[in-house]
Write a structure and sequence with these properties.
- The protein is α+β, with helices and mostly antiparallel strands.
- The protein is 16% helix and 34% strand.
- The chain has helices at 34-44, 101-113, 236-252, 258-262, 310-319, 326-330, and strands at residues 6-16, 19-25, 66-72, 80-87, 94-95, 124-131, 136-143, 168-173, 191-194, 200-208, 210-215, 269-274, 279-280, 286-287, 294-300, 303-304, 338-342, 347-355, 362-370, 372-383.
- The strands form two sheets. It has an 18-stranded mixed β-sheet that branches. Strands 13-14 form a two-stranded antiparallel sheet.
């Protein structure tokens, strides 16, 4: 049989939290630029006008069209540098403007398994991470066995992932985005966004972990407890949410024009936040309003997330500590150390250390718990034109 020309690329396929992505050593890729982007797009199967990523490894969802690039850190107080690439499905676009908090848990596992960090003798290995997209530091606490290998099992269950695993603590240090003047970029707890169609929407704009636009679902004619299956793909609702995202990006100063916002489809996220509700999750479990402190739905890359982005959870937890934000007004547990967020697949608990008595408010850290594991190690076979 005639062998077709191809390119091979070493990679590791990993799950981190409710996301999956391809992990690469930076040394195995071209320098940043068009050549690297072509390889990443081809590996995931983008662009695909059918929206399936059928000719690549991507799963045709925002949660599974991702790549991670890892290298020994250039920073003395970090172990590895972590660059995240969020890859559009239908368009030849890669957004490097944000971070994936779910895959951050897998960064710790990758660093240990690939010999970039000495795990010690357990029970926890603290992997110090420089998040290169945002210029922030993180510490990933990975459970390890006495002989230094990754602890393969655990009893920690997280909504959106079947089964259980070893609990990994993902700690965001100083999560306010370095390019923003403060956690509330405009200085307002609530802003009025002016949309291109002339309508207006009230929003709380939060610059923590990832830029996030928080709105009341009632502004879209929603209850707040809808599931992905309840919303038709390509509907006018998604167009409205995209218009809100673009307006939020402009108001926060992330971009200078709508066209620039379109080139960064992954940031900011749009979160619908409302008071606790009773509903049935995507897993079929009945959630009571008493199981959560806030109900949330988040949109990423033009889709409703099937669970909840970690960075969105961090931004929401921070906003819940800021008096007067739409999040704080809807949240029930204002005095608790952590808040429980009710999302499509279940609940998620997240804590944030915020001193709102300062001007501007000081955000010290935020912590969330995930599971992660390696799914496959090997080589990706790419078409030869991926190198052109």
């Amino acid at each position: 049989m005639r062998k077709l020309p191809s390119v091979t690329l070493p990679a590791v396929w990993m799950r981190g939290g409710t996301s999956k992505g391809l992990f690469f050593h930076r040394r195995d890729l071209p320098p940043p630029g068009a050549a690297r982007d072509r390889l990443l797009l081809a590996a995931l199967g983008s662009p695909d006008p059918y929206g399936k990523q059928i000719d690549g490894l991507g799963g045709a969802t925002s949660s599974t069209s991702k790549a991670v690039i890892i290298a020994p850190s250039a920073h003395a107080d970090c172990d590895v540098d972590y660059l995240f690439a969020h890859i559009a499905i239908r368009e030849p676009v890669i957004d490097y403007a944000g971070n994936c908090g779910n895959l951050s848990a897998a960064v710790g596992v990758f660093a240990i398994e690939q010999g970039l960090v000495n795990p010690g003798s357990g029970p926890l290995c603290a992997v110090r991470v420089w998040q290169a997209n945002l210029g922030q530091r993180m510490v990933i606490h990975v459970p390890v066995a006495p002989r230094g290998e990754i602890a393969p099992h655990g009893d920690y269950a997280m909504a959106g992932v079947p089964g259980t695993g070893a609990r990994i603590a993902v700690k965001f240090l100083d999560p306010v985005l370095p390019k923003m003047p403060q956690v509330l970029p405009t200085g307002n707890v609530v802003d009025t966004l002016h949309l291109a169609d002339g309508s207006r929407v009230q929003a709380s704009l939060i610059a923590a972990a990832n830029a996030t636009v928080c709105i009341d679902p009632a502004a879209l004619g929603l209850r707040g407890d809808e599931l992905p299956a309840d919303i038709s793909s390509g509907s006018a609702l998604f167009e409205k949410i995209e218009a809100i995202r673009v307006a939020g990006a402009l108001r926060m100063g992330l971009v200078g024009s709508p066209a620039e916002a379109a080139a960064h489809p992954a940031t900011p996220k749009v979160a619908l936040v409302s008071a606790p509700r009773t509903y049935r999750s995507t897993a079929g479990t009945m959630l009571a309003a008493s199981d959560m402190d806030l109900c949330i739905r988040i949109f990423s890359m033009g889709q409703m997330h099937h669970a909840l982005t970690v960075t969105g959870a961090v931004a929401t937890a921070v906003a819940a500590r800021l008096p007067g934000t739409l999040v704080q007004l809807a949240c029930r547990a204002l005095d608790a150390d952590s808040i429980r967020l009710g999302h499509c697949a279940g609940t998620m608990e997240v804590s944030a250390e915020v001193d709102a008595t300062c001007t501007p408010a000081k955000v010290t850290s935020a912590t969330i718990y995930r599971t992660a594991r390696t799914l496959m190690r090997g080589e990706i076979v790419l078409p030869s034109n991926a190198q052109r």
